[in-house]
Amino acid sequence: MSKLDLLQGTLDLMVLQTLAAMGPLHGYGIARRIEHISGNEVLLNQGTIYASLVRLEQRGWIASSWGTSDNNRKAKFYAITEDGRKQLAEDTRYWERLSDVMDRVLAVGGGMGNEEGPA
Amino acid sequence: MKLLRRPRERFRAFFHKPELDAELQAEIAAHLEMAIEENLQRGLSHTEARRQALVRFGGVELAKDQHREARGLMKLDILLQDLKYTFRTLGRDRGFTMVAILILALGIGANIAVFSVVNTLLLRPLPFPKAQELVWIAPPPTKCGLSCSTYSTDAYDEFRSYTRSFQDVTGYFAFSGPGNLSLSLGGAPLPATSIDVIANFFDLLGVHPTMGRLFTADDARNGAPPVVVLTDPWWRRQFNADPAIVGKAFDMNGKQTTVIGVLPRSFDFGAVFSPGAKIDAITPLNLYGPPRDWGNIITFIGRLQPGVSLAQARDDAKAAAPRMCWNNKYPNSCGQYTDAVVPVPLKDYISGKLRRSLVVLWCAVGAILLIACVNLSNLMLARAAARSKEFAMRSALGASRFRIVRQLLTESLVLSAAGAVFGLGLAMVLVAWLAHQGAIALPLLSTLRIDGDALGWTVLIAVFAATFFGLIPGMRIAGGNLQEALKDSGAGSGLGRKHERVRSVLVVTEVALACMLLVGAGLLLRSFMKVLDVDLGFQPDRAAAVNVNYDDNVPNDKDGKLGAAKRGVIFQQILARVGAIPGVEAVGMSDYLPLGGNRAWGTPSPKGRKWRDKEITSGPLVYVITPEYLRAMGTGIRGRDFTWDDGPNGENVVMINKSFARFLSSLGQWQDYDALGKVLDTGGGDIRVVGVVDDVHEESVEGEAGWQIYYPATQASPAGATMVVRTKLPPATLASSVMAALRQLNPKQTAAEFKPIKTLVSHSVSPRRFFMMLVGSFAGLGLLLAALGIYGVISYSVTRQTQEIGIKMALGASAELVQRQVLAGTLRLAVFGIVLGTAASFAAARLIASLLFDTSPWDAWTYIGTVAALLAVAVVSGFLPARRASRINPLVALRAN
Q: CATH number, domain at A104?
């Protein structure tokens, strides 16, 4: 099975959730964490995480500061803000509703998958 | 505020690029090092650890780009890059840039200027508050003069009190002539022009004074002290913009008259109601004084009640009309205005007649813009062809087609913005010049200016032009094949040929448009020539007119005979003195001149026959003249002229014009069907027709002559005196001696202007001349641009075919043959364009048919002239490249590649 393409906006949500769950992390740490949790199912160019980070920071949902990593390396650490937590809660609700609806829609009258089966 | 946070951050990031880029660089470096370290710990070799880290990261430059895009204003970045590049390329190609900007400035400038004219005359509301409520109330257009479009004071009162659709109704005295006010400040009295208005005139229009006050009903009652309101230009010119003028009194027409106010600069009576006339002062019209019995003297202007439609107002006016009387003292004069009281929007009255002309003008100037754009497209294509390798290279290096088209559009936008700036400057000069052309009888011209609308229009057409001439070449370049372009050596390859085809199509379009413009201009020119050729019934050359002041007041003059006798003496004395000046051929006086003001008094009938009801719709225009006046004007008489013996106590005599004589004779009252020598019944006595006079164009040069009747100044009372002097020399050379003679006889004579009769004619034909000159100059411009276009294409194709021509010549083709072939190519383009353009003109000619005078819209000479002009221009513009082609040295040409 091929890796999943990320839907528009999902990466931002993943980053927020990661920071909420793990506390302050640097870019590499966030990327590794997402890869780990997704079980390597997500097609993620680690570099794209930085566009997402700057977007979130400009919106004021995360804050950054330079610090030192576990192995004594200078790195920029990101932490979720109060606004970010609110946004995360909102986005989570939205995703739950959306996936709920999608589940129901796809269950109606049997999907394409049932008739054709995997080729 | 949160909503704006991100845009604000992005905007800030745009200006902190170096710091942010450095920070990102450090962050990415740290990221990669951590990844490599982890990979090393997993036991990979150093090279492999680094390779895998980079693979997982997925393109450092891409990540940076994404970061920058998310963080800053990428679009602006690109735009700045494009602009920088554009300035560099345009700067390198200075010749092209200058030609392009010049063409655009001409095209856009002409468009802005014409838009301002159209906006002022047609689109913008009149310069009064709630101008859409204002209506002009007059009979439907008829052949007769001002008298037919005016009403009596009794009719005014009745109309005003009966109707309910109007907030108020006002009007002005329609028969004021230029120079009717004489201002004495010591020394020779100065002539000025004033208009009498009904006291509520300014209230109704919504005009407020810049100083003092305007009229109240009290100013117009019997015995009120004389007051005057000054117009802004007169206040500045004559009174040096005296800030304390209000309350001062001056001797005007012999009466101490108090200045009560100064009108704002924005109010220009002439511009609105009497195009081309210069009004200096406004005075109140006393409706209950002598004007009561002057007949039809006032025009009606009304302001509709809010919410009342024009149709309702029309019904209201129609109902009021039968109740209105010419004079309440004569009950049989009631009802004569039936169906002759019709409100139309004031704006339509003022500029409605010009709509068609303006639309044609607008189309002409639009065609100029199109031609300019087509020309620019052509130039851009030629440049693009030369730059195709550059574009191919950029494309090969990863620029998207969109990006390349955007680059081209940026270039065209920069060019057209520069063109618009220069065009705006050009338009400002043009508009300022036009606004000061007082001699052009077009309404509202003095209010002409470049305003916000014009600026908006400028932006609109600049963007349109840029898109037009940037997109076509852009599409062609972007649509081209890259490899081919890279391989293309510039000679005989596919892209080059395709370009040439597009360019040929563009040139054909250009020639066709120029052809249409030329046909339009040619038709207008032919009409203008015909208008100048019209037999006016008088000879405008070598004659001049001057207002003469006189005092014919006689106390206790019951029937006016004493006054008439006194007038006769004064006039005879003046005319004898002026007639004795060497160089004067003939001299006489009239109260009104042709093509100026006029009035009617009623229609005399053949003696023994009364007019039946509705038999006469409008009376002949009345001129009160002295002997020899008609000779001074150069108007022919059959029968005899008046003499000084036709005095107050002699037989009453009259002269009538041919049209009126023909009508009277056709009634069959006289056996010989000739009015000459017959007696007419005026209703108040008998008069004998002693002369039949040539028809004179009294209203306009172009219109037909109506009925005219001439009374001797010693038997009827004139409305003033204008002396006409016919001279052997140019009239201006006699001005000072004539004025000296007048001053000697009457110290109160104003320093009036000595006006050539020719100016009456040129004033009357000035709107036609104005439109013809504009359309003509646009056609000239179009022709020039078309010539440039033809030259460009042919010249380019010669360059492109240098090798081919070289081979032909090496194989024995003579220089003449090569030259002929190039010229043939040129003519082919021109002929295509001409055929297309002629066909289009043929179809569109109907549009300007109503603007033509005595000229068919399919006038053969115009078409022949246009075709000849275009062919000549094509030959000339093809000649240079053809000569160059014939001088190609085969050896050099073949070695070139």
A: 1.10.10.10
